[in-house]
Design brief:
With 334 residues, this protein is α/β, with parallel strands linked by helices. It has 12 helices and 9 strands. The strands form 3 sheets. The chain has a 5-stranded mixed β-sheet with strand order 7-6-3-8-9. The chain has a two-stranded antiparallel ribbon with strand order 1-2.
Length: 334
């Protein structure tokens, strides 16, 4: 398979719905799975096994391979973690040659009709040809691949399929490693934020020292008519104004107008930094040392309905990066 190929930005699925591949690739670890042909008895086994690992709401207790009679079981705590990977981190596009009626039967038998995953009927194999997976006039090479965000570059995870040879372990390992990498980066960012938080707290302490407080009192004790009107507002409103300033430049200008504004600005930055650190920290469910799942934490967050996929974690990471940049540019340099 040519690993330099790119997936199309849009498709039309089995139900006639438009599929925005570009947007899905940004919101999920977007995975496509190709089925060799509708008559192939091996290819759908992969989908059954993914159901067993938590893709289905009510997975079976075990899976018996129809070919080598192997029985696969998954411990309940592992299902919880795999479900996080398969249903919140990942999203699936299934590609299969026609006819449509037979693809519908596969979707129904695999219980994929209960999920919003897109089945693509590639009757003329034009899609398979464009991504280098056309096997013959009527068949597609079985493959599991990741459609990279933004570029839509195709990254193969597992190639081929046969009895007892499905690639589901490679897929689960890939999703696990992907999440572990995101969480590892988040952990390093938290450490950086913690260092900056310590410096911020020191700056806040200095600004709130007895000498500086006295100067603020002198400023704020000026006759009402000589004080800027905005400084007469309640502290809650002043903080709200800071939180809604649109640019760092405006933020810096306002903070430089008086010691009171600087003290308030530092407090707002510190509050936001602490909040964003907590938001990111509360989303992490793998152990720092080896990336293994923290099952007790996963179950705790699951019961609270607070398990985040990697897309949500990355959004929180971006917010934390923003507040770190503000802290560095305004506080650290001053």
């Amino acid at each position: 398979m040519d690993t330099t190929v790119n997936f199309p930005k849009t498709l039309v699925d089995l139900d006639g719905s438009n599929v925005n591949v570009y947007e899905l690739s940004r919101r999920y670890v977007l995975i496509f799975i190709t089925l060799k042909a509708t008559w192939c008895p091996v290819c759908p086994q992969l989908l059954y096994i993914l159901n067993l690992h938590g893709l289905h709401d009510d997975p079976p207790s075990s899976f018996r391979d129809a070919f080598d009679r192997t029985i696969i079981t998954v411990p309940q705590e592992e299902i919880t973690f795999y479900r996080l990977l398969l249903r919140q981190d990942a999203f699936f596009i299934i590609i299969c040659p026609g006819p449509v009626r037979e693809v519908l039967q596969i979707r129904s038998s695999c219980n994929f009709s209960h999920f919003p995953y897109h089945f693509i009927v590639d009757e003329d194999l034009s899609l398979a040809t464009s991504i280098g997976l056309r096997m013959s006039r009527e068949e597609i090479w079985p493959c599991i691949a990741h459609i990279k965000p933004t570029t839509l570059a195709v990254h193969p995870i597992f190639f081929g399929r046969g009895p007892g040879f499905y690639g589901y372990k490679d897929l689960l390992n890939y999703l696990h490693d992907y999440r572990a990498t995101v969480e590892y980066n988040a952990t390093n960012l938290i450490l950086k934020a913690t260092e900056i938080k310590t410096r911020l707290e020191k700056s806040v302490t200095i600004e709130n020292s007895a000498e500086n407080v006295q100067q603020q009192i002198i400023q704020t004790d000026q006759p009402q008519q000589n004080r800027p009107e905005i400084l007469t507002l309640p502290i809650e409103i002043l903080i709200h104004i800071f939180e809604n300033l649109e640019t760092i430049e405006v933020f810096k200008i306002v903070m430089s107008t008086s010691r009171l504004w600087r003290a308030i600005g530092l407090e707002v930055i510190l509050i936001n930094l602490r909040n964003e650190v907590k938001q990111v920290s509360d989303s992490l469910v793998t152990n720092i040392r080896d990336g293994s799942p923290n099952y007790s934490l996963i179950n705790k967050l699951r019961y609270k309905n607070k398990l985040d996929g990697v897309y949500q974690i990355n959004q929180k990471i971006n917010k934390l990066i923003t507040i770190i940049e503000i802290s560095q540019r305004i506080v650290i340099k001053n």
